[in-house]
Amino acid sequence: MMLIWIVLGLLVAVILYTITVYNGLVRLKTALANSFAQIDVQLKRRYDLIPNLVETAKAYMKHERETLEAVITARNQGLAAMRMLSQNPADAAQIGKLAQAESQLRSGLQSLSVVMESYPDLKANTTMQQMMEELTSTENKISFARQAFNDSVMEYNTARQVFPSNVVAGLFNFTAAQSFEIENPREREAVAVKF
Amino acid sequence: MRQQSGASSLSGNAGSTLGAAGEARGFATNFFQQQAQARRNTWRIFALFWLAIAATVIFTTVVIAFFLSHSEEFADKSQVHQGQFVFHPEVLLWSTLGTLAVVGFGYLRRRWMLAKGGKAVATSLGGRLVERRSEQSDERRLLNVVDEMALAARIPSPPVYLLDNERSINAFAAGYHPTDAVVGVTRGSIQRLNRDELQGLMAHEFSHIFNGDMRLNMQMVCWIGGLEAISTFGRSLMRSASNRSSSSRKKNGGGGVILGLALFVIGILGTFLASLLRAAISRQREHLADASALQFTRNPYGIGGVLWKIWKLKDGGLNSPYAKEVSHFFLSSASGAGTASYFDFGFFNTHPALETRLQRVCPELLRDGSRPPGVDRDFFERVESPIEQRIEIPVPQSAKLAGAVSLLRQATEQASALGASLEGTPAGGLGTSLLRFAFREATMAKSLALAVANIRPTPTTPTDDELRQQLDAWLATVDQPELERLQLLNLSLPALRETPEEERRNWLGELEQLQLPDDSSDARFCMLLLAYLIFALHPDRRTPLRAPSQAERLLATHQLLSFAAQVGHEVAAEREQAYAAGWMTMKRKLPGLAAQPLAQLHIAHLVHAFRVLKATPPLTLAEIHQSLDRVLGFDRRLKGAEAALVQALRTATGAPNWSR
Predict the structure, then answer these.
(1) Fewer beta carbons under 10 A from the terminal one: N or C of chain B?
(2) Domain around A108
């Protein structure tokens, strides 16, 4: 009789423990998804920001049409690729296009900020300063969102690897998460926005 | 939950999956170990803290039990015999209940006092909510940085409060729950820190929110309040028992005094020990927050730069009298360096020494002569010598004409001789007959005043044009055209005063109504000249205002500082900062007011401000002049128009002049 009670008690303890670990893992996984969504949000935000920036710059930069157009074209391509991706996230061709547009956008913005150096009026323009601040901030937000995502991945992966949580993780098929790595090292560089 | 997940991640391969930013910057990533250590230390000390609380409570119970078991009165009322064993159940029950009641009362009282949400703390410190849609560049930057750090810390972005009146570098987080939390930043921080450092500062505060430090601290403070109640209870017991024994000479009174003394001593010792441990925990949490700031920013020069600047400037103190009570909220000790006393060995500090923190965060900055990026030699000069000394104004050349003018007014031969003697000097360039004539004759003086103020009279006579041409030609050759124009206006005043009162009233009345464009710097200067002219000449405006109230004085100061900020600075953000800097020196302030836009400022306002200041007692006036100097000297350059403003105000209000 006593033995039955002990076994029953143990069973209940195990079940309670499993539930706790399961919930913890789910929470971490949700945080992970949220962190990933943040990256998306910030990328979109940048695409929204760029047309305004270019409009303001246009008024001052009469001779830099090419630079500005390059930025806008890259932005439009990136946006299009992102729209396609939102319909079919596994489309490898669109991912390639997005990556290409992103790298063009980066170099475009970089040359824009270099060109801006020779337009003191434009640099002094309050709207432009505000916009550059927003752009700097968005670039930062993108990298912080990536970093937060990677921190989330680390927490999640650690939680599902340590004993005895790994038993629960294996039981309910919590697969390892992949951290956000950028293949092309040049893409890691944030756009240097200078004033 | 957060703490657990964070702690468990340490056992894993901490450094391997760092974000791109951390790897790209390439520095030692031992912040996870630092966090783990700080957390471990916290829980160790926390256990000791509980031990101290428990020991004090148990000891108190035993002392009360001992007293009860020896008390005649208690023996009379209960079934316990006097002198019976201390651990008699009934004795124990009553003594435990008594202790818990006292401690509980102290706990709840403190809890009730601390039950303010984050917003209340921020407002009581003089914080102003930075609106999400703020357009000011420094506030925009602050909000952006907060958002960035919220992303990195994975918590919702909290409301941000700005402590406008605090010039030091400091920040705080308040609120017991991430959803209720707010962060506050001093104005000094957003002025003196660059973007990276602002990130470090915010990341540090976010760590306090993220790790629930405010709640932890409140818990400890409340328990300490409970222990304090024991000593308070003991003291009042001592007092009442000694009163009773002296009045009724009852034999039992002595016991009450002894019990009171015992409880008092226990309470004091317990409070002392618990406060010591609380401070130790608080220091651990600061280390944890610093290490988390590294995790969030992956940049040692962020939080490192902040600590370095506070360390080097020896300036983290706050003006708010309330700051001391909540000093543990702040990034660095909020009461500043002034608290160090002979009894202070650092045991009660809620923050570790800045050097210790720098040693862990960014040891490179501790080396002699090393500076965080972006800090030049100028930095210290800029912050260490705010413009305290009075602004010196060069003597305009036309001032040399003053002697000639006063003689000219008597139309003597001496005057022309003096005029001729000035011919070779720069001021002599002005010494043409027309200008000299203008100082003597009222109609011409009027023309001159208008020309000086750059206003074209409606029926323009050929003399007006000629006068204007001569004036412009001369002004083009001088160093300080604005000062010269003010001086010329001064020189024309005696002649103008000779016009009949009614005529003057009409003419100046028209001038006062003049609408000037508010976008050109010359229009701003012109507004000053006209206000000065009206104040000096208008029959109804010359007199100082009779007994202006405090509110009127503050309003006048507000309008003057707004005007000064806009005369001297072209960039809108700089204006706001200069305006705020002006208020720093004032004892009485107008809280939460921004500089008044020029479109809303009229000549009449300035004239009124002159009249108010003229009636202001000298000490307050000196204070206002000082804050004006600070506004104008904010960009550390004194432009001509600024110098003229100071000069005009000094003359108008009777403050010492350049000719002193």
Answers:
(1) C
(2) 11-188
